[in-house]
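Class prep. Protein, please:
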Amino acid sequence: MNPKEIISQKNTKIKWLQKLSQKKHRRNNGQFTVENLKIIYDALKSGHDFQDLFATKSFINKHFQEFEYLKKESKLDEYCLIDEDLNKYYSQLDTPSGITAVYETRVSCLDKDKSVVYLNGIKDPGNMGTIMRSALAFGVPNIVLDATCVDIYNLKVINAAKDAIFKLNIIEDKDDVWLKEAKDGMPIYVANSNEGINLSEIKDISKFCLVLGSESHGVSKEIIQLADKNIRIKIKGDIESLNVSSAAAILLYGLT
């Protein structure tokens, strides 16, 4: 890749980067940005190339070896060289990293032979990203989101999910259509901190759908009615419940 210098805020690519900070533009145009070197590096190592790349001179000097890898392995012919002021102008981070990659959003299909994590009303980007990492870590490659969840291509979600954003099969479910159809093919377990059987009582299952809800509202009543079982984690009485991302990791470990 050869450098192409950009110096103006009016440049069409810079304007486009600003637009990609908004969910509607990400959705309508099928693109999202990553401002994290490790995620960009790991994604490329696993075969996920970027569509555009922006970097400052100071970033390149500081991370010379890693940037040389990106230049060598990417199929792009050029990258955009920018200064720190331009990076601050469009960056979604309080402290810009010095690098931005643009990716195409993936159109996923679920692996029908594997289990699923179903997310209902998960609004917090950090929780969303951490749950995605846990799902990947415990061999559950399928994520289904309902319409009330935070956008998975939100930069905060991506920074929490790391390269799991590229490695999971992720689809959206409108009006619980997918969940109703899935009920015939696998048991549906709803995480419920107030009632249900203990996690330790579920044994010898080959495939499942684990439903997780927001900490403030829990899983919706409509989805609870579809569930085969409510499951809970046995915890001490000194605390009411666990953070949803912590509960997700424990539940996935127990179920897999």
